[in-house]
Amino acid sequence: MSCGGAFTLAINIYGRMYSWGNGSAYALGNGSPHDVDTPKMVPFDIEVQLVSAVSINKNHSMIKIKAGEIYIWGSNKYNQHGMTTEDIEE
Length: 90
What we know:
Elements: E1 2-4, E2 7-11, E3 17-21, E4 36-41, E5 51-56, E6 60-65, E7 70-74
Antiparallel strand pairs: 1-2, 2-3, 3-4, 5-6, 6-7
């Protein structure tokens, strides 16, 4: 579980991730900027992935899946994702 700003991410024993709280900057990972009052499972567009670690800050989130890949979303106002928009492939 990781808490930061005004939202929370948690992983259950099966590797599924849940989020709730303030959804601004799309930090909840559910594709919406709206707040969520109760824990909701985060649907991933990629094939079913098991989350092994979560980390969040005020307006952005990061997860590591069991396969070792890292995913980051939310605000990147200060390049906290480690890349600028010029670095992102389209």
